[in-house]
Automatic annotation (TrEMBL):
It comes from Glycine soja. Keywords: Coiled coil. Residues 1-12, 198-213 have a biased composition (Polar residues). This is Myb/SANT-like domain-containing protein. The keyword Coiled coil applies.
Amino acid sequence: MPKGKTTPSDSNHPGRDSLQWNDEMDQMLLNALGEEANKGNRHDGAWTTQAYNNMVEALRSTIGPNITKNHIKNRMKTLKNHFAEAYDLFHSLSGFSWNSITRKFDAEDDVWEELIKGKPHAARWRKMQIKHYDILTELFATDRAKGNVAKTAKERRKQWEKENIDLNNYFEDTEMYVPNVGMFDENQFSPPNFEDASPQNGQTNPSGLNTSRGTKRKRNVVELVEDQYERMNESIMTIAEALKEGNSVSKELHQVAERQVEVAERQVAVIEKQVEIAEKQVTVIQQTRPRHYSESDVWDLLEELRVTDPFRMKVYNHLCDNEHKKRKLFGVPPHMRGEALIQMMTDAGIFC
DNA sequence: CAGTGCTGCCACGGGCTTGT
DNA sequence: ACAAGCCCGTGGCAGCACTG
């Protein structure tokens, strides 16, 4: 089966004597790429057939009618390779800054010397402009920012040879690629979505035309599911930690509440004692305070003791005239006041 | 009849080669 | 060095046969 072999009929091979790209043409191509990217005609770094068709149409109208998809693919390949080399070299290096005016990376001479000492091939970028670097960064930087996954097979092979990585354990050594789809919100776990495992995220070409039939660098379903389970596991662990923490906090709150109850009970006991003491003080004050008994008090007492006329008025007058005897009588317990009154009046000669 | 598995086709990205 | 061609591996889609 002739997989992937482009035939002259469908690729419109331009021939080796055609098309020399210049800055202006590159700019038009990159503009078209950016436009298609904005339209969403790019999935996981792969351009859809519709994107290529649109770009061919656009460039044929601006550059010339002989432009083919193959021209675009080849030029993209060249531009991407140049960009990748510069990007991988400089973007993570300290001491270098991109100068959009000179279109070069700026650095102190000693910084350049140090870099060139370690990487002699980097010397070319000291004088060579990196045209369209800003646009290329927007278009291709994400492709370069996905760890080992983003590297070419050649680069990875070299890395394995260099690092002597055991391929059986490579999965563990590989930085997990997080697909840039909304389903992977950091704070919201969603169950495995097998439909989204397809490279186009389940989308179909709305135009009904043949779309990009997928890309090489798609992760397979197993990887996505494992990634999902990894995230599910992390989410469960997070929830478990939260529950554990919640239980701990609850326990502490319970202990605090118990201590507050104990304190409150002690406060109540103290208040009750204070009330008791206050009552006693009131009693003492009442007992020690010189009480004044009025004439009406004397009259009420006589009525209470059922003292009748003709003795009532005599006893009333006698007690009202003798403050000492009056207080003496009221000092006797109520149930003995009758007897005390008879004794007191007999001594005074009022009763016979 | 719906679900599943197989097969062929097509298209992609990328490595390598060749011609200018 | 650059542009283009050739080739490969990968993966989605459609069609078909089979199965429960």
